Each structure stands twice: as C-alpha cells, then as structure tokens.
Amino acid sequence: MKPCVATIGTFDGVHRGHQYVLQQVVSQARQRGLESVVLTFPNHPMQVLQDGFQPQMLTLPQEKERHLLLTGIDRVEMMPFTPTLAQMNANDFMRDVLKEQLHVQVLMMGYDNHFGHGSQGFADYLRHGEKLGMEVVGCEELVSEQRISSTAIRQALLRGAVEDAHHLLGYHYELEGEVVRGFQNGRKFGYPTANLHVAPCKLIPENGAYLVATDQGYGMLNVGTRPTLHNGQQRSIEVHIFDYEGDLYGQTLTVKLLRHLRPEQEFDTLEALHRQLMADEAQCRQLISTSPSPQL
Fold first, then answer.
1. Model's pTM, two decimal places?
2. Catalytic option among 65, 174, 176, 238
C-alpha cells in the first residue's frame, strides 16, 4: 500500500462541507506526490456507542463511496466501526491503523473532527503524530451563509425541503433500491408506478409528491401511506416515470429528488385523486420544460 495523505470521518451525505475538506486532502496529496485516502465506516458509530440507536443515513455505504470518489479522492477505505475500535485510544489508532495499515504520512483533520477513546482533541493528535513521524494538519472550514451539517440536511428532508437539502449537499438527494411489486393501484388510473424497496436505515423524506429524475427519465414520486386507497400505515415509495413503457421489476432504480410538489393528502373519491395526479404531472412537465438545466 502506497504512502498517503488521509482523513477520517463518518462523512454521511458527503455534503459541501465534507467536499471542501476532501478537496484540501486531494490538493495536499498531489503537492506531495502521495495518494489521497479517506477512512470511513459502512455503519454509523452511534450504532455501537448507543444501544437501540436507529440511524437515518443520508448515504448508504455504496452511495457514500461513490460520492467520495467523485471528489477526486484516490482511495476509500471502509472500516466497520466495532466495540474494539470504539475503545481504542487515539495514539494506538494512529499507530496501528493509520501508520501500520494505511501508511499515512499526513493526517488531515476537519475543523470539528475527532477520534480515539478519551481524546482531548487536536493537540493530542499533534503530539501523537510527532512521536509517530506523522504530520497532522488542520483543514480550513468552509465559510457559508448557513451551517452545513448532516443534521441540517436531515431536518430539511424531513420537512420536505429537498431544494434546501440540494443546496447543502451540492447534489440532489437520492433514493436507491430494488423495484418490487406493490398494490398496483396506479395502473387503474393510467399512472403505473415502480415500487421502490429502500434500505431501512436510509432517511426517507416527508410524505408527499415530488418531481424526480430517474435512471429511466423524469417522473413523479409519491412517499406515504396512500390514505385515499386505505392501504394501511406502511409507507411506500412509488415513482411514475413519464413516457416509460417496460418492466422494471427486480432492477435497481436510482431516484433523484428535484422538487417537493405538495404534501400527502386524502381525497374523497378516486376521481379526485386522478385529477390531482394529472395536475401533478402537468406541473412537473411545466417545470421540466422551463428549466435550463437537465436536472433543474
């Protein structure tokens, strides 16, 4: 394994703040002729540190790796966060994992990043680094008009504010999953839908209708319990792809959320629901036709 400049963190969402740190890692690595590496975790550390913690992840492991590599990072190292790792102090972690396993020459730390059981912060990392012959560098913080954090993005999505989430992420929030068989009620209205099975730990935005872009073209997405159809309380994620004819069952579909159209609502009749679906489609097509960008 080649010597490298590395950083470590959860990086859930790989948002604009993360991207700014990672650009500095890439820049430092290129200046020194070294590899740039991110050490991150496929699971959320709080699942180990707090009993019963149920993560609401912005990015699943494969999504996170894809977005990390898009920043120009040479290599992503996924290390499961375990109870043993949680108990390791910073000096042992830097020696046994960063130096011996990953051959880190330069460790770059985000402004609010920390690791190691009992660590007191950046001064500790500097001291341990000096003993190990590892340079420790603090990254600059991205100056923004609003705080960029994974928590702020989750809060935006949970109120349906996908455009706010887009601004903080630097890309459109995505839902990815296998297309499975649902109730097939949409066919009755001329709006067949692909029912998306998404990993339980993935954050699902507020119930409602959304304009989306998929692997197969634009469409409209409904998240919710389908109250008009009285299908119970189980949430579904269903996407109708405009002008698409084909069988997607068993395939993996990626859906990018572009606009929140309206909250979920119950209609008195199926005819009223059908009229609303037609109005949603008309609004979506208007947005698509008037946008200068392929993805709004």
1. 0.90
2. 238
